[in-house]
Amino acid sequence: MQDNALVRAWLRAFARAVEEGEERLTALDSAIGDGDHGVNMRRGTSHVHRMLVRDGTPAAMGQLLEETGALLRTHVGGASGVLYGGTFQAMGAALLVRRAGLAHLGDALDAGLAAIVRLGAADPGDKTMVDAFAPAVRAFREVGARGGTMGAAVTAAAAAAEAGARSTIPMQARKGRASYLGHRSIGHLDPGAASTEMLFKSLAEEVAGGPAPAVACGRQGSRRS
Ligand SMILES: Nc1ncnc2c1ncn2[C@@H]1O[C@H](COP(=O)(O)OP(=O)(O)O)[C@@H](O)[C@H]1O
Ligand SMILES: [Mg+2]
Fold first, then answer.
1. HSE (side-chain half, CA atoms, 13 Å) at 201
2. Which of 30, 46, 158, 213 might form a disulfide with 204, Cβ 3.0–4.6 angstroms?
3. Is there an atom of ligand 1 within 6 Å of 190 CB?
4. Ligand 1: does its nearest atom lie under 6 Å from the Cβ of 92?
5. 144-159 pLDDT per residue, tens
């Protein structure tokens, strides 16, 4: 599968995961927020899905991710709209600047995480999507540094995102709406961390589980042909 097709498949899989997980995200956000994370994300990713099936979709991977970011920023709303919008726009920009193939996904993920931190100013342990996103990017990089394949990197990233999301349960929220609850936010999984887990699992499903051969990742990685 070509890089662009793979990114499209990732975005479609993410939209599907959000659709299937909408009620769960809503329930999580009802416990420690205002209960709109599921519907917010579903609204945003359904616009992304429509963009993917529409004619005239930007062909280049970087453009596709930037367009996704713009749609999420506009249609998700709430804190997560700004953050998901910003992260996808940054991932797209990173790939456009480098005119890079998917072998450079690690650089895009770094840029995506940096955007979330720049926009939301959350530290690890604040009980936000950062607690799933940051370990996922780290795990991806570690596999890349060992010379591992793209498939192994995205699989490790998905597992780290899942563990990271789970790790938010005992945390007290220090950012976002859940922080208003103080210690009463303890004992609940952060909804944004749960949607971030969906993002990385969708990527792993498409790259590792799909028909595409694994490729080396990292700056020196070979381009998928
Ligand atoms: N400052 C922040 N930095 C990182 N993530 C944040 C921040 N504020 C909120 N979030 C994430 O956004 C999620 C809530 O999203 P959502 O419900 O869509 O927004 P809102 O809180 O505006 O209703 C949280 O679970 C958390 O993961
Ligand atoms: Mg909310």
1. 18
2. 158
3. yes
4. no
5. 999 999 999 999 999 9
